[in-house]
Amino acid sequence: MSKGLTSREDDYSQWYNELVTKADMAEHSAVRGCMVIKPYGYAIWENMQAALDKMFKDTGHSNAYFPLFIPKSFFSKEASHVEGFATECAVVTHYRLKNDGNGNIIVDEDAKLEEELIVRPTSETIIWNTYKGWIQSYRDLPILVNQWANVVRWEMRTRLFLRTAEFLWQEGHTAHATSQEAIEETERMLEVYADFAENWMAVPVIRGKKTANERFAGALDTYCIEALMQDGKALQAGTSHFLGQNFAKAFDVKFTSKEGKLDHVWATSWGVSTRLIGALIMAHSDDSGLVLPPKLAPIQVVIVPIYRSDEEFDKISELAKEISKELKLKNISVKYDNRDTLRPGFKFAEYELKGVPVRLAIGGRDLENGTIEIARRDTKEKQTISRDGLVGHIEDLLIEMQQSIFNKALKFREDNTREANTYEEFKAILDEKAGFVSAHWDGTSETEKRIKDETKATIRCIPLNNKLEEGVCMVTGKPSSQRVLFARAY
Amino acid sequence: MSKGLTSREDDYSQWYNELVTKADMAEHSAVRGCMVIKPYGYAIWENMQAALDKMFKDTGHSNAYFPLFIPKSFFSKEASHVEGFATECAVVTHYRLKNDGNGNIIVDEDAKLEEELIVRPTSETIIWNTYKGWIQSYRDLPILVNQWANVVRWEMRTRLFLRTAEFLWQEGHTAHATSQEAIEETERMLEVYADFAENWMAVPVIRGKKTANERFAGALDTYCIEALMQDGKALQAGTSHFLGQNFAKAFDVKFTSKEGKLDHVWATSWGVSTRLIGALIMAHSDDSGLVLPPKLAPIQVVIVPIYRSDEEFDKISELAKEISKELKLKNISVKYDNRDTLRPGFKFAEYELKGVPVRLAIGGRDLENGTIEIARRDTKEKQTISRDGLVGHIEDLLIEMQQSIFNKALKFREDNTREANTYEEFKAILDEKAGFVSAHWDGTSETEKRIKDETKATIRCIPLNNKLEEGVCMVTGKPSSQRVLFARAY
After folding, report:
1. Which residues form the Aminoacyl-transfer RNA synthetases class-II family profile domain (chains A, B) (predicted)?
2. CATH number of the domain that B365 lies in?
3. For chain A, how many structural domains are there in total?
4. What is the pLDDT of residue A468?
5. Average pLDDT of B389-417?
6. Which chain A residues are Cβ-neighbours of B67 within 8 angstroms?
7. Which of A367, A397, A427 is the last residue of a domain?
8. CA A214 – CA A84 distance, rounded (Å)
């Protein structure tokens, strides 16, 4: 199975594309830019959703659902918002097809919409138009709502999971009585995302703020978490926006405060998407296939029988079922692969490709000796252990692997975060080693843009709790009070 | 709160509309025909999803995700399918907006799609186009996939939950090697739906098959479950379709059998939607508000404090927290309403309106006596019981209520299912009492259509395991071998 997987060294991008397809995660559909998420890939998304949804609810949020379509006029109400999204919008103009009389199905021009509808690229506008009806007084606040939904952004160059015309995500939209509360919410949700990335995805992230240039269209402040992929490119893994009163003003959403004053409502929005599946793949996987952190793996343990006779097969199957039952009682997902048309070596390669964390192999000699061969996917270490205590061993191993995968990614990031003090040094690092580059910048959009044009590197973020340090901009020599984090990015 | 809710007797339709809005279930959005599902309504959908998803997985299905958009040409490949859906399709024709130079945002005519995209009204076509790449041999079968998604059908007259332009649903799409297997799957999933309707929604259903007229566009056979609402109108609560080889032929999906023969694949599809929330509301609720079966209620128990002093309030709150903790340990969802700006009577009415199954009220005297007042929503019975054993009492009560709500609905259906032996009798029943009417019919589409035109009643289904009975069609007098079930329907 893993034969034919291009190595990361040879062509990282090709490796990724092949891996996503061969591991049955997703594939391109017949619709330009839209993907099909296959059952194995979707199972990872379901695990991500379950963990995130619990975190959202534990922080007081409820789910709701808002329309897929947004009237063009709503969409245009917040100036910078429409500016940011207008060039990538799918537009619905008609609501009926008809037979043209010659047997062809055509769009019925008599069924043209009076006002075009935009397929939501994000839902601030339709949601704030709705909130207008929900909010009169401070007693109606805060509103803490999240939506799990599909969104469409008409991307010209697409890649499975990383950039697709349609993707799945969640978008939180909250409304508050004060600026302070809204900022706290923005920061709280950033921390939820960071917690999820690090403790579920095993991907260490830098928490930071975007520069004005890179802000969400309509936000006063965009917070983000940034992760580093194995090719040294950064990936934005989640964003949390402080929207100020921009959308409340655009949709005239006011409330009466405790003191009886009328004011516009304060807003946040925050989201993560199926893009995280791309990050998960690129952060940990190797030339044999996926490496999945146990907490998000659809199958945590696979059992492969190795037998020379039907009788041996029956005995192994009996043992495998016994083990499966014990594992399930511990909430460990397990699959017994009893297909008789495939050889064990083929199955081993398949589960390596699919990143199943723990593989058990049981042969005739194991039956005699009361042993099991156990292999861990991340390090590929194998050992033969006693059947007794197997379940406890696996429980410990899954916890250890989750931590070990995180540690490896953290070490990689540390090894690939460098300081540059001159623009030459900066460019040399990017070209030779990539990774995060920490450098002084004069704080202007002009310089930021020049760096991007000349090096393809962008400011990923101004890290939170950044150390203040006097310096000069590596490009203009103007004074700077802190380093910011650059990288080439997905 | 419940003041102003029109009674069912006065205007059932108005009662429903008001109830959905006042109970914070859903509201109309600014987009024609599209609803906003509010947190309380969405929480019921989440409970429905969780139960159904587990049933789908227990019967071997996995979830996946397919594109929102369907190329017009795919959509047209199955003749009766496009015929069935063409008149209600949202069509995407452009992928970009632009500023017209005068500050107006307009559709960019330079960004016209070569081929229009249909927003999925159902996904058979895009899925079978995908399955073509997944299926070569019998070893690739069966494929048992489900999708949770939004779909759009451009309805002209819409009602919250019951008929909306966009709705949420699940659609199962399975592929099989034999006709027999596909029929078994169709029937299995109908049984899953019936099980869910009866044991979770507490709504008794008739399992049956649709007549040719009422079949899904592209199906050889449509199975359905039919429920009866309190106004005597029927509601189709779920459908399961045996699609034969229609979609496999339209998309050229063939497989090599064990015997080495090439054949088209056999298909099923099945779905239920947010319409079920409408059915849930209409089946059980009363003039005071929602009546929710405990298994699907977002809040199963609410605790309301009744106090005359801060000191009393503190003591009641302590007890309420203790009880809440005990209930949560039993997986019973509970809310302690400690809002100090509202009177108990107001809260009582609010939770009646929202259909919270069990209400506990704790007052000063209860503290002294070690008692609690407990009220059940369905019958509105109240009693004062001892604090000791409260949790066990509530556990039993929730089970009893679930059953009791079902029994009431079943009795209603039995009381409102009648036989008609002449067309006059048939029309009289419909006009005077409505409900299900069991009658003989000659089996032709012409007669079916005439009955519909003249009485607005449709054949809801030919019940499964129907009793054979010689008779004559009530309209044409032609021979008939069984009665079928008629009703006016949502």
Report:
1. 27-293
2. 3.40.50.800
3. 3
4. 93
5. 98
6. 29, 31, 34-36, 166
7. A397
8. 11
